[in-house]
Amino acid sequence: MRKGPSVVTVLTDGYTEFRFFRPEAANVFVAGDFNDWRTDQLKMARKDDGCWVLRLPLPAGDYRFRYLADGLWYTDYAAFGVEPGRFGMDSVCRVPETPIRLHIAQGAEADSAAAAAA
């Protein structure tokens, strides 16, 4: 487990992981434009190391967000960037497009090459 500052990680399984280090907090939520800034919807789970974690399935795009811990807002300066928002600095989460990978059967590759040469 990683201890220390906040981290946003885009995972290979289609999820984005939000990790916020606040060991003294009793309740932590993440809010952003991906949930219309609802402060009571996305509660994070506390881990033994003092980090709060939440995984969300986010489609490709840029999102603004902040953490809400015990009623106080926090900006994640270790995210993909920060921008001025309506009530302070918002963190930015960037989810890239996922490339489509085609798998060609072993024999099909040779057949395709032979057909193209003919």
Gist?
It is built from one helix and nine strands. The protein has 118 residues and is mainly beta.
What does this 3D model show about the protein?
The chain has 1 helix and 9 strands; from the N terminus they run βββββββββα. By secondary structure, the protein is mostly beta strands. It has one domain (7-117): Immunoglobulin-like. Strands 3, 6, 7, 8 and 9 form a 5-stranded antiparallel sheet that branches. A hairpin with a 4-residue loop joins strand 4 (45-46) and strand 5 (51-57). It is globular, with a radius of gyration of 20 Å. The chain starts with 6 loop residues before the first strand and ends with a helix. The mean pLDDT is 85.
What value does the Rg take, in angstroms? 20 Å
Estimated helix fraction: 10-25%
Q: Give the tally of structural domains.
A: 1
Name of the CATH class:
Mainly Beta
Please state the second-level CATH architecture. Answer: Sandwich
Biggest sheet statistics: 5 strands, antiparallel
Looking at CATH, which topology would you report? Answer: Immunoglobulin-like
Structural class: mainly beta
Proportion in β-strands: 35-45%
Order of helices and strands: EEEEEEEEEH
Instruction: Return residue spans where pLDDT drops below 50 for at least 5 consecutive residues.
Output: none
